[in-house]
Design brief:
- By secondary structure, the protein is an alpha/beta fold.
- The protein has 17 helices and 18 strands.
- Strand 7 (241-245) and strand 8 form a beta hairpin.
- Helix 14 runs parallel beside helix 16 (417-441).
- The two termini are 18 Å apart.
Length: 522
């Protein structure tokens, strides 16, 4: 090994000269500005085909971004993986699909679908739901209920009614099937917590979807319009609702039913899956009377922990990760982030592996995130994360150190431009501290991001006005190499996140795997 390398991932900090809603440009970032101006720097792709998604119209996300960063390769991911399975019909030929459909046909029960209702292609796609609805009708399912989670995060902030209408039209077209929307709520209000940061949020979703408990409305449209008028919040924050007829929920789950969570992304799908699969030992919240249903996810959201027990589409088998290469070369590594992105620098980075490759050579730290709206505290836990990175540098134990600062992404998703500007400045302050430690201990610093977000907080609407944007951007991200004693020249060319791992290997002086993308180093 040559010098140790520190990799800083500035989550959600994309690169574009466009000024509209660009909190990265608006923020005061002397450290980042100097690194870009004075040291090897280029922009790399973090969306679309570069991270295994169907097309360059698909925004990247933290999960596929960290997969690509951590494995140096491009795998079919998320929407593309499911698209291929639906197009080939393999999803319907799977043992799990056959069990789900066979269960309700035999019991006379209901086939339930739970998931994020949008075409954001980050957690889900409404086209997958509509395709499965049609197949279920073809195979003789007679009763279907949909439990919808409203997006407004990966798609325009107040677009929910468009997707509700698409779904209502699809349900109405299912001849001979009793098919209805049964419940719903904003994705940041119910069901879709991640990293076990807010179990009450999952309980709220469980009670809404499973037991039909909550405020009742005649339709999803009525619920959304009523809540908007009462609260003024965007789709992701709308309260839970239950659709009822004559005071009775239309979609309460019963023994003999089947349930499909059609989200394909793992982080916000695991906890509700644990609630369905947990059995008598589940102790995260009181589930009340648990109906005996057959549950499955779109994908296996955690291969090591086997969450969920049943799933429709096999996940990509990611092999030959950077961590595996470091272990083979006897290089110790350290990873840290706060709860919101801890799984990204561990599980996703390591190719969807929960455990360590080597207990002896890997150390991880998680800084617990606050359970609060991130725009109220845009600095989040950046100082604590930087403290641990600096401690790891000073220890001299590690050849490779990586961290994630979630601020640009998590605060960006709130739609609060001022708070996001502060979030970007917070990361810059901590980047300065890490850079100083790298200088003092002769360590190379690499800086990048997993996708954009804070760089595009506003967008023009169809009427020519400007509206808040809470989704990830399609912009590339920076990649910088800083070494106080040397200048590491980079090639010119079109590179993406998968080129980072071989570049890190080159800086460490170790031979990358043959299956990897090329290094950016000359």
């Amino acid at each position: 090994m040559k010098k140790p390398v520190v990799l800083v991932v500035m989550d959600g900090v994309g690169e574009t000269p466009v000024e509209l809603g660009n909190m990265v440009l608006k923020a005061t970032t002397p450290t980042l500005d100097a690194l870009k101006a004075e040291h090897p720097f280029q922009v790399i792709k973090a969306h679309g085909a570069a991270v295994g998604l169907p097309s360059d119209d698909d925004m990247g996300n933290s999960e596929v971004g960290h997969n690509a960063l951590g494995c140096g390769q491009i795998y079919s991911q998320g929407a593309k993986l499911v698209n291929e399975s639906i197009e080939s019909g393999s999803i319907y030929a799977s043992e799990t699909w056959q069990k789900l459909v066979g269960n309700v046909k035999q019991s006379g029960g209901t086939l339930h679908f739970i998931g994020l209702l949008s075409d954001g292609n980050v957690h889900s796609n409404i086209s997958h739901l509509i395709a499965m609805l049609g197949e279920a009708q073809k195979e003789g399912v007679k009763r279907i209920r949909c439990h919808i989670l409203l997006d407004g995060r990966d798609v325009p902030a107040t677009s929910a009614l468009e997707y509700v209408q698409q779904l209502e039209d699809a349900l109405a077209a299912l001849e001979g099937v009793d098919a209805k929307i049964a419940s719903g709520g904003g994705r940041m209000t119910i069901t879709m917590d991640r990293y076990q940061a807010n179990w009450p949020m999952v309980k709220a979703g469980w009670d809404t979807h499973v037991h039909g408990e909550g405020r009742q409305f005649a339709s999803a449209k009525e619920a959304i319009e009523t809540y908007r008028a009462e609260t003024g919040v965007i789709d992701q924050d709308l309260p839970a609702f239950v659709i009822a007829e004559n005071g009775e929920p239309v979609g309460r789950m019963q023994d003999g039913d089947s349930v499909i969570l059609y989200n394909f992304r793992g982080d916000r799908a695991q906890e509700i899956s644990m609630a369905f699969d947990g059995g008598a030992d589940f102790d995260k919240f009181d589930r009340g009377v648990v109906p005996q249903v057959l549950y499955a996810g779109m994908l296996e959201y955690d291969g090591d922990l086997k969450i969920p027990h049943n799933y429709l589409v096999n996940p990509p088998q990611i092999k030959n990760t950077l961590t595996e290469l470091l272990v083979e070369n006897g290089i110790r590594e350290y990873a840290v982030s706060e709860t919101q992105k801890y799984g990204h620098v561990t599980y996703f980075w390591n190719g969807n592996r929960s455990g360590k490759v080597s207990e002896a050579l890997e150390d991880y730290d998680e800084v617990p995130s606050d359970v609060r709206s991130f725009d109220e505290c845009p600095w989040m836990k950046a100082t604590e994360v930087a403290d641990l990175v600096i401690r790891a540098i000073e220890s001299g134990k590690y050849g490779f150190i990586r961290c994630n600062f979630p601020n640009g992404d998590m605060v960006g998703h709130t739609g609060n431009c001022l708070a996001t500007e502060i979030a970007v400045e917070t990361v810059d302050l901590q980047l300065a501290r890490i850079k100083k430690a790298c200088d003092e201990h002769d360590v190379i610093l690499c800086v990048t991001a997993d996708h954009g977000n804070a760089d595009q907080m506003l967008e023009k609407n169809k009427k020519g006005g400007v509206q808040v944007r809470t989704a990830h951007s399609l912009n590339p991200v920076p990649f910088i190499i800083y070494d106080k004693d040397a200048r590491h020249e980079m090639k010119e060319g079109a590179f993406g996140l998968a080129n980072v791992a071989p570049t890190v290997a080159g800086l460490l002086g170790i031979q990358p795997y043959d299956c990897w993308e090329e290094s950016m180093l000359k």
